[in-house]
What we know:
Elements: E1 5-6, E2 10-18, E3 22-29, E4 34-41, H1 49-63, E5 73-79, E6 82-88, E7 92-94, H2 95-102, H3 107-126, E8 129-130, E9 139-142, E10 147-149, E11 156-157, H4 178-181, H5 188-204, H6 214-223, H7 229-232, H8 238-247, H9 259-272, H10 293-299, H11 304-310, H12 323-345, E12 351-353, H13 362-371, E13 375-382, E14 391-394, E15 401-403, E16 407-413, E17 418-420, H14 429-438, E18 442-443, E19 448-450, E20 459-463, E21 469-471, E22 475-481, E23 489-490, H15 499-508, E24 512-517, E25 523-528, E26 534-535, E27 540-546, E28 549-557, E29 567-575, E30 578-587, E31 592-600, E32 603-609, E33 612-619
Parallel strand pairs: 13-16, 18-22, 19-22, 24-27
Antiparallel strand pairs: 1-2, 2-3, 3-4, 4-6, 5-6, 7-9, 8-11, 9-10, 12-15, 14-16, 17-21, 20-22, 23-26, 25-27, 28-31, 29-30, 29-32, 32-33
Amino acid sequence: MIGRVLSNRYELLERVGGGGMAFVYKARDVRLNRIVAVKILSPHFTGDEDFVRKFRREAQAAASLSSPNIVGVFDVGQDGDVHYIVMEFLHGKTLKQIINEKGRLSVPEVLQIGKQIAEALQVAHKHGVVHRDIKPHNIMITADGHVKVTDFGIARAVTGSTLTETGAMVGSVHYISPEQARGGIVGELSDIYSLGVVLYEMLTGQVPFEGDTMFSIALKHLQEKPRAVRELNPGVPAAVERIVLKAMSKDQASRYQTADELAADLRRLLLANDQHVSLQGLVGELEPVVQDTEELEKTRGGTVNAAKEENPPAPPKRRRRPWWHYLLLLGGLSLLSAVVALFIIFRPGAIVEVPNVVGYSLTDAQRILANNKLGFSVGLELYSEEEPNVVLDQDIPEGRKVRVGRVVTLTISKGPEYADVPDVTGKPLREARIELQNAGFEVGEPINYVYSDAPEDTVVSQNPTGNTRLKRSTRIMLTVSQGPEPQPFTMPSLLGLSVTAAQQRLSELQLVLGDISGPMDGIVVSQTPPANSQVVAGQGVSLQLGPREVTAIISYTVPENSEDNNHRIEILREDVNGLVLLESLRLKRGETVQRTIKGAGYLRVIVKDEGVVVVEEVYP
């Protein structure tokens, strides 16, 4: 995929991230000559209409939002079977990375970051979009100190379905709202709760609820109160703690009713203490620009906490709940009962045996583990020949006994890895092999060699053709030139030549010496193909050798009972030089002729009486 230009505009430079559904590439917009980020739907899902719809919905939801605190979407398109979104490319770190590096952040930094996230949500909610997955992983702090909310991957328009999917908790369990945990209505107030959790984590360096399983964590969101922010970080002003608690209220009516209200309170705290905060130092190796809370208290002659305690904000008025709220509450209580039942089932202490889920689909594996009172999490996602979402491995082997509720980490298949087949037509065979192997493909055997006007050992065609998107390790069959087709010519005679002379002659004719039989010190007495036949360069020629000179004595007597008394006798010799008439003479009845005859290579002597062969002898 690297180097490919989508829609003749976006040149993919390098892969910078990705998940189960899409991959993110750093790219160059060749038309505007700027660096952008391109999110590409994984090829495993391009044939799945449901996934394609989700991907398009993500693009449309994000493209409708315009805010300095939301990652900008420039373009949405499709190039063949590639579906993509073009976004601004960000340089910086995720808020989660910063929390992991620094622990808790200073109060002014938290207020500034929280304000910008709330302003981003305000814009999204006004456009009818609920993020549904607010967490530090989806918040970027850029190198110049701006907050950017990213990944509206599971955002959904409020006008569409807003219930969590059956059997699944959409979003990360540490940050989900109570209504998400019990499968209730998910809306703008759910995003506000999640932002409250993010504020809590920035101030304390830890999430409010931890547990061994996702069910236990979800149950805590429903039932328990988190440890007080000021207990974990005494430097946090009481007014700041009240904002966090109000955002994280389990009762939706007691939360901030809009992101705008939350942003306004955060702004007021910043302005009340004249705290102009730069976040630029959070990303690089530089020291933070903002002083910590204790230092701010000293320079201002008092504490932020004290300033806010003198004039504490009035408690929010309880709103009269509409009649339908109680119906939803009854439904929520039923679901809450189901979650409590799950907690009872997964109570600690009991021991179970881990089943084998390798080879099962992720859905079936989840069901099998749940039936055995075990949880699961997805670890590695690897390319394989298995279908997507098939379990390849499990970290706890089959048969091991563990406590109920233990989480089994699964390695799942991402399906076969696909890549673009390089076009190696016109390249030398050695170079073509290296390029195909580097791209993850195999060169098929045997290679098909053909006569061609292309230089020898040059690839003249390939199957499948170049720029085809295929599974890695697919065999690519190559057709390679063996040079121009040779023209036929007439085979000369090699009879009478020594082996050395015959071999030299064949080399001059670009023919190959084949099998040799007979005495090696002899001469050629026979050849295949024979003289005067049509041959081509590179063709093999076999030779039979015989002695250099053969001598024979022949004798013939005219029969006494012959009727004719005047016989015409012919004596012929055949050797490597051919068949010749040696002598013709007249004999009477009873007369005898005897001759000594020599031949080259081999000897065949024929005697004819009045044209009839009466003697035929062959001497090797």
